[in-house]
Amino acid sequence: MLYQAIQYIKFLIKSTNQHGVHSPFVYNLITKCFYDSSDYEAYKLISDYKKELLKNRTKISVTDLGAGSHATKQQERVVSEIAKNAGTINKRAKLLYRLSTYFKFENILELGTSLGIATQAMSLANPKANITTIEGCPNISEFTKANFEKYNLENIQLITGNFNDVLKNLTPKTLDLIFFDGNHQKEATLQYFESLLETTNNDSVFIFDDIYWSKSMTEAWETIKQHPKVTLTIDTFFWGFVFFRKEQVNKEDFVVRC
User: Is the pTM of this model over 0.90?
Assistant: First the structure.
């Protein structure tokens, strides 16, 4: 946690808002999406979904296949505690909703379903989108799958299993968004990144959660930024955005308060 606090101070010093950005693409993204203050109807559904989870006292035996939780190492956890400590916060779920509507993502892959808070937001943004989400813990997967059915989220395919094993068996296709939200370890993150590069098109977006989770995760983020196929990145501290736009002549890396 000390590492994250120090990195956040550095982030605040380096970061800017739309006024420090000279890329039209990034400027529009910041002003029309990141800083969009509209009160969308779907926001209530997003908030209600999270509220129900925060009230849920169901106990789940958790299998951590990745770096685990900073908040607890207990195997048996209450749903409300998972939602509080590991679930996507409302602010970021709403940002995912805006991103999904802004870019009109149609084919989405999420690594790390957890309780489906982020998944629900993306589903609401485009009910016709094809969303594949992978969860490593069988018990969490079972609970969340039932929740998706309860809320009639019919455009989500939830697959249970180790990310590596599932990715090997996924039918290759072009993906518009990949949300990396599980297994916050350097080697695994870089492996997923490399293996999924073949799914990108010119407008694909990769979002990496918790790029300052640990020193090794930040190292992974720095390595990703240097990849020759990556033409543009945005560091918002909690998420790292990666773009592959060929019209971006000179590679640029932005640090933006969001």
Answer: yes
